[in-house]
Each structure stands twice: as C-alpha cells, then as structure tokens.
Amino acid sequence: MTEISKVDSLIFDMDGTMWDAISSYCEIWRICFARHGAPFPFSDDEIKAYMGTPIDGIFDDLMRRTGVKFNREAFLRDIARVEDEEMPRLGGKLYPGVVEGIKQLSERYRLFMLSNCSRYGLRNFMAFTGTTPYFTGSLTWGERSVPKSENIKELIARHGLLCPIYVGDTQADCDETHRAGIDFAWASWGFGQCKGYDLKFSSFPELTAFFLQ
Question: How far is the C-alpha of 149 from the C-alpha of 172, rounded, in Å?
Fold first, then answer.
C-alpha cells in the first residue's frame, strides 16, 4: 500500500461509488426498447448486476436473455443519445457526503472521474451534482472503448499523475485498477463485493476524513 503522504490524486468511479442511478438507467433502457418495438422486462435489481460493464456488453447479454434482435449499432447509438438527453433530468441518488467530500478533497488533491459509461455520462453527472469545478479531468469507456485499466493508464499519462488511487465499488474495478499498476480503495457502500483491495471505506465521509488526515 502506498504511503498516503505520497498520494497526489484520486480517481473516482461513478455508479455505486458516487451515486445510485439504477432507476434512471432502467428508464432509459425502457425508452430505447420501446422505440425498437419491444418491452423491457428487467427489474432495477437485475440491471444493477451490470453496473461497471460497458454498454455494448450489457446490450449483448440482454439480447441473449430476451431473444429479441435489434440492430446493434443503431440501438447503441440510440441509447447513448437518450442517456445524454435524459440523465441531466433524471440524475441519480447521491450517497451521503459526496458533494461535501469532493469539495474538501479538491483543496488537497487533483480529482478525476473514470467510468465504463457513455461518452457524456461523467459530464452529465458533474452537471447534475454541481461538481464540475472540482474535477481536473475525466475519461469514459464511451470515448475510447477500451478496458478500464487502459483508461486509467491513459488518464495518468495525460495529466502526469505521480501517485493516484482509484476509488470504486466492484471486484472488476479492483482488478482493473491493479492491472493499471495503482492502488485501489473499495467503496463498500456500493454495488459489489471485493477481495484484494488496498483500502476499504464504509462511507464517503469516512473516505474524506482519511485522505484529509
């Protein structure tokens, strides 16, 4: 585990780490399924299991499970467009202490967001929560279509980060972070379980207090 005194930046996942927007994502999928002529038969809990999976992977599995056959490229374009239109309105439920913590942490660290979401997902999150001024940069799967570990490496290179820590909520987040060669902080309040983390926090205020000690 890296000495905390050496940490110069924090990179945050979005879903399950900063907020719970499952109901909003389900509404977006319902809209898109309806536009393509089919009902959306999945519950919020079923969709929650996909959090952290790139949108094309979710699409492929839902097509397999439903047996419907949408045009893949057309559907993926549509759902990205609908998400960009609807998420600024729908938003999500922020976990306690997130906005206050981000403001405080930004006074000591360079803050970033990195997620397997659509191209504009992080921009929409920041606009909805009013946190845009506190983040130095961000990167999404929708921009580069590569594994999260590769996007972490890219973000580090772009911004010259010396000792970042990634904060996420799933085992996949942990594994991808370690593949990128940096430490992982598990947000245990989120959607997933995790083994092999470097740090663990039970709430965002606990995380904030730790990094501001």
Answer: 10
